[in-house]
Specification:
Elements (H helix, E strand, L loop, with lengths): L2 E5 L3 H13 L5 E3 L19 E5 L7 H9 L3 E6 L12 E5 L7 H8 L5 H10 L3 H8 L6 H17 L12 H8 L5 H7 L1 H17 L6 E2 L3 E6 L3 H17 L4 E7 L5 E6 L8 H5 L5 E3 L3 E7 L4 H11 L1
Parallel strand pairs: 1-2, 1-3, 3-4, 4-5, 7-8
Antiparallel strand pairs: 6-7, 8-9, 9-11, 10-11
Length: about 325
């Protein structure tokens, strides 16, 4: 039997897998990519008796590949919080999908494991910009404020590392970063002992210093839109900057459009924190768009669709 772990390359996907494999250690084939690379199941070649665990990627986007695996008598266990569409009913399919606006994949896995590795769930939940949910989840840990702040920083840095048009844009390939995290039951030990934390911290500081100087191109009482250049630092910083802006202005929707070298934009949308819904509905109106209620994106928005996007963004929020 061959085991596959298929996971989003962001904080929620990596920290969800971290919890699961601390609880259920095994050697598996890792399948992941940059944060926006979510059609991952099509890369899995498995046969009868093999098992595939899927974390933090949309079922709707991966439906054809999932149907193919289930038809081949592959057992699939699926944890996710994105829009799933119709959920298959199959004896080989173990489904853990919820789409609550403040409950990410890390918290679904934490619930499945009865909180055994809660600190990693807190890291991933902070990274996915669910600050209020992360603070609630952390209460039983009784952490001192400086330690909790460190978990928040780690979540933000892991999430930041996942943004890019390709793995070459990232500081660490997501599967390599997971392997560095995996030996640590306590994320505070990783922070103190592995040089990757400092590398991510320094990279984040440099990129965000540039990104924070960006002024909005479109600004209203309840919405702001920013355009970033076609540079690797901008691709790395875009999603985290969107999260930061959302937390700083909780009544405002945020859209960050990062220019692509080949033309067009990659888009990150954040619904207002005080009304965390609508981002996915907006982005699904465009080809390559998707995500969740509070945060969604479009992998490639053509220049010709810019005006239509601005119009619908303003109307949505």
């Amino acid at each position: 039997m061959t085991e596959f772990d298929v996971f989003n390359g962001d904080a929620d996907g990596i920290c969800a897998l971290q919890q699961l494999r601390l609880a259920e250690p095994l050697d598996s084939t890792l399948v992941t990519g940059v944060k926006r690379e979510i059609a991952l199941l099509e890369r899995v070649t498995a046969g009868p008796g093999d098992r595939v665990t899927v974390l933090d990627i949309s079922l709707d986007t991966n439906r054809a590949a999932l149907d193919r695996l289930l038809a081949a008598d592959v057992r699939v266990r699926y944890f996710d919080h994105h829009f799933p569409g119709e959920i298959p009913s199959h004896p080989g399919f173990d489904c853990h999908i919820e789409t609550l606006p403040d409950k990410g994949t890390c918290l679904l896995v934490d619930e499945f494991l009865d909180g055994r590795f809660r600190a990693w769930a807190v890291v991933g939940t902070f990274g996915d910009n669910f600050d209020a949910a992360a603070y609630r989840a952390a209460l039983p840990l009784e952490l001192a404020p400086p330690a909790l702040a460190q978990l928040r920083e780690l979540g933000i840095y892991i999430n930041y590392n996942g943004y890019g048009a390709q793995v070459a844009d990232l500081h660490f390939a997501p599967d390599d970063l997971y392997r560095r995290l995996h030996p640590y039951v306590n994320p505070l030990d990783f922070i103190n002992e592995d040089s990757a934390f400092r590398a991510l911290s320094n990279g984040y500081a440099d990129d965000m210093a540039r990104a924070r100087g960006t002024l909005p191109t479109v600004a209203g009482e309840r919405h702001r839109l920013y355009i970033l250049p076609a540079d690797p630092w901008a691709r790395r910083a875009s999603g985290v900057l969107a999260n930061e802006l959302a937390q700083a202005s909780p009544e405002c929707a945020q859209a960050l459009l990062t220019r692509l070298p080949e033309g067009g934009f990659v888009v990150s949308v954040r619904a207002p924190v005080t009304r965390a819904e609508g981002a996915d509905v907006l982005c699904r109106q465009f080809a390559t768009g998707g995500g969740r209620k509070a945060a969604a994106g479009i992998n490639q928005l053509p220049e010709a669709d810019y005006d239509r996007f601005v119009e619908r963004f303003i109307a949505a929020f």
